[in-house]
Amino acid sequence: MITLIFWSLGIIISIWITPRRNLWEISIFQSSLLILMSCFFLNNNTSSLWNNLSLNLGTDPINSPLIILSCWLIPVTITASINNLNNNSHLDNNIFVTLILFIIIILIITFSTTNLIIFFLGFESTLIPTLILITRWGMQKQRIEAGYYFVFYTLLSSLPLFTSLLILYNNTNNLNFIINLWNNNNNINNILASFCIIAFLVKIPIFGFHLWLPKAHVEAPVAGSMILAAILLKMGGYGLIRLSNLLWLNLNLNINNFLIIFCCWGGVLTSLICLTQTDLKALIAYSSVSHMSFMVAAISTNTNWAISGSIIIMIAHGLVSSALFFIANIFYERSGTRTLIISRGLKNIFNTLPLWWLIFSCANLGLPPLPNSIGEIIIFSSVINWNLISFLPISLGIILTSIFSLSLYLYLNSGNRFNWNNINININERESLTLVLHILPLLILIINPNIIMG
């Protein structure tokens, strides 16, 4: 872990002394080496114990896939942003890459720490660079309002978590994940346990806590949307898994029964909202809320089966949602609009992009044998095993997810060509490479999903 952190700091130093003409090549090459270094942590997935423990940092089968996902998407994100930033000054480009690399450093610390206070500090530290990405490189004037939503939702939900961690430390005299797993935390009251999980429910987010997410996604640049959907939202799921292990008795007896029902029906309602969206990025953002709501319902069952399925969902959804936001940015660059009805007929413009839309739309709806389907089968089985009545919202969620995912594909790849979008431009090699880098991990997970079962 220390090696990954210092390597990322070295990349930040190197890009500030790199000439403008070599900035993108150097940053992409060095961050790609970060992927190779992080892949060594795959060896730890065969063990149920912590490894590489040092300075309150370590890896286990839960955080290793998330660390690798974070490292994988950093060079992909930089590659996706080149076209948007080519006309900016050298200073702007350096700041942009530096912010992305600061995010990866914070994520490595957050996912690998064994201390709850360090986890909280990392959890909140991602707010600053992400806020700068949204407000500085956002697409429209409403990005300032989106930044306000992002800040206030995150800060207001984090205050109860911080207070709860202080009380937990006062009760147990330590905040170490590993030690607290062996301690008896049954004396923690239900209000304190509820406060501990509120921040994660907002960060994931589930239905009812999600109002900041569509605004942030719609106004963020492509790099901000990809990082937000693929990595930052998974911090909430990771934190919920860790806290569920520590507070399992309080959650099981008093909170989880309500939370499972609320998340299942919240996922159905969010799927209905997706059917009414006219903005392309807003639709993809709401689909994330729907998927994450069902994932939280599975985590709330507190079974090993559900935790394994949730990890698969987090990894697969991170890759798929990032790819969908990138394709949406391609459409926006070509047509100048994200309105679905105006974008009809673009199949006459692009030759290969409809194929990518079909692949990732099918992945989004959970079509076998893609890893999304594997994770959804596991988490749905866990929730139905908890209570057979939950079969109803899950069935509705599956149907509605299929409808809006296929509708998204049909809206953008069928219909007549209109005069206002009559452009004859195909995707270039950089964009094709970015899409290949999204689907390559999915193909690996189809062959061997056990590497992220946790």
TrEMBL record:
The keyword Electron transport applies. One of its GO terms (cellular component) is mitochondrial membrane. Its EC number is 7.1.1.2. The lineage of its organism: Eukaryota, Metazoa, Echinodermata, Eleutherozoa, Asterozoa. NCBIfam families: NDH_I_M. This is NADH-ubiquinone oxidoreductase chain 4. Its main location: mitochondrion. Residues 1-110 form the NADH:ubiquinone oxidoreductase chain 4 N-terminal domain.
